[in-house]
Amino acid sequence: MPYLVECLASVERQTLDPACVEVIAVDDGSTDGTGEYLEEFAARAAMTVTVIRQENSGGPSGPRNVGLAKAAGRYVFFLDADDRLGDEALERMVAMADKNGTDVVLGKVEGINRKGPQSMWGKSLDRTDVFSSNIKFALSAQKLFRRALLERHGMRFDESLWTGEDALFTMEAYLRADGVSVIADYPCYYLVGREDGKHVTKGGSYTLRFDSARALMNLIADMVPPGPRRDSLMVRPFKVTLLPQFGPKFLKDTDEVRQHKLELARPLMDAHWNPEVARRLRVHERLQLHLVAVRRTELLPDVIEFVQAKKQPTPVLEKRGTCVYLGYPHFRSRAAGLPDWIYLAEPREARGVQGYREEAANTFLRRALRKLRRSLPTRDVKAAAA
Q1: Long-range contacts of 218-224, Cβ-Cβ distance < 8 Å, separation of 24 or more
Q2: Facing residues of 49 across strands?
Q3: pLDDT (tens digit, 9 = 90+) per residue, 145-189?
Q4: Per residue in 61-93, pLDDT tens?
């Protein structure tokens, strides 16, 4: 409360026939009148409403699993109590899934007083997958899922995780799905930023973020064989979950916390970080995570402060413009001793540099990667793929 009022109003405004909708509302030990308001809503709503009241579980996984166990429809959608639906959201998503036979549908998300995911809304897609699109960066639970998919694989939210449980669930659904659809031309979901800053996806200590990253990396490693497809998915936990722990937050951390973060990161870097994952990141992101991987975090503050100040690195063009290095801190510093390839811009980043020759650069990059792989330990060579 009071966000629940508008949330439920958006449910009542759905253009999908109310006879086709069942609302299962789980009051997870609220103390603000939520339970009473849900009962009032159930009494007046045109669709079937089931209200379940229980002791507080401490996280979203338990209540979602309770609701999922009660669900009987062909599809399920997880709606957070502080967010809201677009009026045509359910109708459009169900129609998209029925038309294409897909198991998961992403409806466009827009933020209200907060930023929502953006890179996957370029155009609507009748059928795609997690390898052919940017949906790996949209791992919140607010999707339409075919319930038969979830039941067939016994899928539930991991109640041992206090954050990132939705990323684990959604990634598994993407990987198991017979196709995913994307609705990019209609805002289906409004992600609401609460005035108190305590919306349900925020909060928790840094150790919980490492728990989340570890779980997602392990899932990807278990479900996807080594190679480019696995590497492309590993970008998400490294970039979204791990990298922020070694960004501006790191500058404020005590020495004890910094050391603890390094200890938590070490097994993840050792198991899953390799040049093929690294090259899929922007140069400064790659540099920050490389410093973590090689335990050189004494060099991190210079890089973080440079990026935080929005300074532009000096580009260094070589090989007749086919090769662009971005001069972030410690580039070609003898004292630092960092390899040049960390600073080598991929085409998507190099295109902004005047004088860059992309067509010729592709051949150079392939040769450079082959040379790099030959110089790496066996584990990294096996994990990397052209």
Answers
A1: 219/168, 219/171, 219/172, 220/171, 221/271, 221/272, 223/172, 223/175, 224/175
A2: 23
A3: 999 999 999 999 999 998 899 999 999 999 999 999 999 999 999
A4: 999 999 999 999 999 999 999 999 999 999 999
The structure's pTM equals 0.87
- Helix (H), strand (E) counts: the chain: 16, 10
Q: Which amino acids are annotated catalytic? A: 166
Q: Which residue has the tokens 């009148």?
A: 33
- Beta pairing, strands 125-128 & 144-146: unpaired
Do residues 127 and 204 lie in contact, with contact meaning Cβ atoms separated by under 8 Å? Answer: no
Sign of CA dihedral 356, 359, 361, 362: positive
227: left (phi over 0), alpha (psi -120 to 50) or beta: left
- For 57, the token pair is 């579980």
| Residue indicated by tokens 């939210």 | 157
Smallest CA-to-CA distance from 246 within 311, 306, 309, 291 is with 291
Q: For residue 77, give the nearest of 13, 143, 19 by alpha carbon.
A: 143
Cβ-in-10-Å burial (0-12, 13-18, 19+) of 229 comes to: middle
